[in-house]
Design a protein that fits this description.
The protein is α/β, with parallel strands linked by helices. The chain has a single domain, classed as TIM Barrel (Alpha-Beta Barrel), CATH 3.20.20.70. Helices cover about 40% and strands about 15% of the residues. Helix 1 packs parallel to helix 10, helix 5 runs parallel beside helix 7 and helix 8 packs parallel to helix 10. The protein is globular and about 45 Å long. It binds SN-glycerol-3-phosphate.
Length: about 220
């Protein structure tokens, strides 16, 4: 199974609108058979990104477990899928939800639809693993957006999460994130037992996005 490099575009100005399209195309160019690249884009950009980078896997940054009808302003799952979402992040540190939100969403989404539930620590990962999402991404909030990768600052949180999740549900794959910047961080994540990484600023704030993406992917070769 290919390891994942999941790039969260958040609301970085360098990763929204036209820039989201350009970044997605750069990710498409950097992809190869060793890696599963995923762009996690603003709901507004889903359709345009999917059109411009059709071979790239594109996820939503959040979804709400609501139906079709009187739900003003919510991110409705079927609508997101129709516009190109091939997966979703949920419970990101910057968009926390109740565990019941994750549970309802999982019931509503198609069985094979990838869901990446984020956890701040091993205890939260443990709780989420009981629901059986496709992925759990462990990201210590204090390291998000910083210069030190979780794989350097706190490798134990990665390996402990991998162990905890495996005990509860071996089908759930663990990603790690926060401060991930280069191929060495990606390689270390995999050595620690993760199935890949979730990162943002290392890509979205880079001066030379192509070389950063190439370097990240090289960490898996
Ligand atoms: O979703 C990824 C994220 O929260 C990590 O952000 O900027 O530390 O790579 P960053």
């Amino acid at each position: 199974m290919q390891p994942l490099i999941v790039v969260n575009f958040k609301t970085y100005s360098s990763a929204m609108g036209e820039k989201a399209v350009e970044l997605a195309q750069a990710m498409e160019r950097a992809s190869n058979e060793h890696v599963r690249m995923v762009a996690v884009v603003s709901a507004f950009d889903l359709f345009a990104v999917k059109q411009a980078a059709p071979t790239l896997e594109v996820w939503s940054q959040h979804l709400d477990p609501v139906g079709q009808g009187s739900f003003t302003g919510w991110l409705q799952p079927e609508n997101a899928i129709e516009r190109g979402a091939g997966g979703t992040v949920i419970n990101h540190a910057e968009h926390k939800v109740e565990i019941s939100h994750v549970e309802k969403l999982m019931h509503q989404l198609p069985k094979e639809f990838p869901i990446c539930a984020c956890a701040a620590d091993v205890a939260e990962a443990h709780q989420l693993a009981e629901l059986g999402p496709t992925f759990i991404a462990v990201e210590p909030p204090e390291l998000i957006g910083g210069d030190i990768s979780v794989t350097t600052a706190d490798p134990a949180i990665v390996s402990d999460t991998v162990d905890a999740v495996r005990t509860i549900n071996p089908d759930v794959r663990v990603l790690c994130g926060a401060g991930v910047k280069d191929g060495n961080d990606v390689r270390t994540a995999v050595e620690l037992g993760a199935h890949g990484v979730l990162l943002a600023s290392g890509v979205t704030k880079a001066d030379d996005i192509d070389s950063v993406l190439t370097n990240l992917v090289a960490g898996l070769e």
